[in-house]
Design a protein that fits this description.
By secondary structure, the chain is of the alpha/beta class. The protein has ten helices and 13 strands. Bound molecules: nicotinamide-adenine-dinucleotide. Nicotinamide-adenine-dinucleotide (NAD) binds next to helix 1, strand 5 and strand 7. This is UDP-glucose 4-epimerase.
C-alpha cells in the first residue's frame, strides 16, 4: 500500500487514477480547487483537500500528509485549446508546480509523477515523434508544460527528487468535459447525445493519437516503481483520423450519425502521434484498449449513463 497525493484528482484523468489507486488498497489524498473538477467524480474513500496549488499552504498540506508518491495532474486543461493566446493563469500553474515540488522535497516524497503533454512538440511534422525530438510549443499551454518539466528536472538535480514525466497523447474516456476544449471524442459524444450533427473542422483527414483514460492510469501506476529520471510518452503510437473516428462511432452508435464539414481551424495541429517504445521498455507499458473498445466504454458511460449510475450506487 502506498500513500498517494493526486493533484487534480477531481478532474477527468485524476479521478480515474484515484479510483485505480483505491482499488489497489492505497491511501489516497486529492488536492483540487474544483475549478473544473467535480465532487461527483471523487471516490468516497479518497480524502479531498480543497485547495489551489498556487497557495503556498499546499506545501504544509503535503508535509502533513507525508506521501510516498505524488501524481501532479492539476492544471487548467482547457487552456490546451487556447492555442497561441495568452493564458493569464500560466504563471499560477507554474507557481503551483513549484509549491508541489517544494512540498515533495520537504516531505521526502519517494516519487513525483507529472502529467505533461504532446503539446510540448508543437507542430512536429514527423509521423512518429520520439522523446528525443526537439520541443517547440506553439501554445502557452505547451510552453507552460515545458517550463514545469524544467523545474522538475532542476528540483531532481538539486534535491535528488525521484521523478517521471509522462507526456500524454490525446486522452479520452468517461468524465471528460464536452466543452470545446474537451477533446473531439467528448464533443462528438455530446453532439450525439443531443441529436446534433457531428461538426468536423477541415476535411476530416487530420489524425490524432487517442489513448483511453484507463491506459493513462496504467502508465501512471507503472511509473511508481519504474522510469526514474525519465521523460516517457504515454500513448498508443497509432493514428486515427477524424473520418475514421466517425466510422468507429457509427459502429458503436448503431446508426449513421449526421455530419457537417466546416472550415479548418487555423490553430489545429494536423497530425500528432507519439512513439511508445520507451514506455514499453522502461514501464513495461502496453496499452490494453484499442480505440473501438475505449469508444464503446465511453459511449456506454457518457451516452447510456451506465457507469455514472454505478458511481451513485457506491
Ligand atoms: N486530457 C488530455 O487529453 C490531456 C492530454 C495531455 C495532458 N493532460 C494533462 O493531464 C492533466 C489532467 O487533465 P484532465 O484532462 O483530467 O483535466 P481536468 O480539467 O479534467 O482536470 C484538472 C483538475 O485540476 C484541477 N485544478 C486546476 N487548476 C488547479 C489549481 N490551480 N489548483 C488545484 N487544482 C486545480 C481542476 O479542478 C481539475 O479537477 C492536466 O495536467 C493536463 O494538462 C491531459
Amino acid at each position: 500500500m502506498v500513500k498517494a497525493i493526486v493533484s487534480g484528482g477531481a478532474g477527468f484523468i485524476g479521478s480515474h487514477l484515484v479510483d485505480a489507486l483505491i482499488d489497489r488498497g492505497d491511501d489516497v489524498h486529492i488536492i483540487d480547487n474544483l475549478h473544473s473538477g467535480r465532487i461527483e467524480n471523487i471516490h468516497p474513500c479518497a480524502t479531498l483537500h480543497v485547495m489551489d496549488i498556487s497557495n503556498p499552504e499546499v506545501k504544509d498540506t503535503i508535509v502533513h500528509i507525508k506521501p510516498d508518491v505524488v501524481f501532479h495532474l492539476a492544471d487548467q486543461a482547457e487552456a490546451a485549446a487556447s492555442a497561441q493566446t495568452q493564458n493569464n493563469d500560466t504563471e499560477l500553474t507554474i507557481d503551483g508546480t513549484i509549491n508541489i515540488l517544494d512540498g515533495c522535497y520537504l516531505s521526502q516524497t519517494k516519487k513525483f509523477i507529472f502529467a505533461s503533454s504532446a503539446a510540448v512538440y508543437g507542430e512536429n511534422q514527423k509521423d512518429l515523434v520520439s522523446e528525443e525530438d526537439p520541443v517547440a510549443p506553439i501554445s502557452c499551454y505547451g510552453l507552460s508544460k515545458l517550463a514545469e518539466e524544467s523545474y522538475i528536472r532542476l528540483f531532481s538535480r538539486i534535491y535528488q527528487l525521484p521523478y517521471t514525466i509522462l507526456r500524454y497523447a490525446n486522452v479520452f474516456g468517461p468524465r471528460k468535459a464536452a466543452e470545446e476544449a474537451g477533446g473531439v471524442i467528448a464533443i462528438f459524444l455530446n453532439q450525439l447525445k443531443k441529436g446534433e450533427p457531428l461538426k468536423i473542422y477541415g476535411d476530416g483527414n487530420q489524425t490524432c493519437d487517442f489513448i483511453y483514460v484507463k491506459d493513462i492510469v496504467k502508465a501512471n501506476l507503472a511509473a511508481i516503481n519504474h522510469g526514474d529520471g525519465e521523460i516517457i510518452h504515454a500513448s498508443t503510437a497509432q493514428t486515427t483520423s477524424i473520418n475514421q473516428l466517425i466510422n468507429h462511432l457509427r459502429n458503436v452508435y448503431g446508426s449513421e450519425p449526421k455530419t457537417i464539414y466546416l472550415d479548418a481551424k487555423a490553430a489545429d495541429i494536423r497530425h500528432s502521434c507519439l512513439d511508445n517504445g520507451k514506455a514499453r521498455k522502461l514501464l513495461n507499458f502496453v496499452p490494453s484498449y484499442d480505440i473501438v473498445d475505449g469508444l464503446r466504454e465511453t459511449y456506454e458511460a457518457e451516452v447510456l449513463n451506465k457507469k455514472r449510475e454505478q458511481r451513485q450506487e457506491l
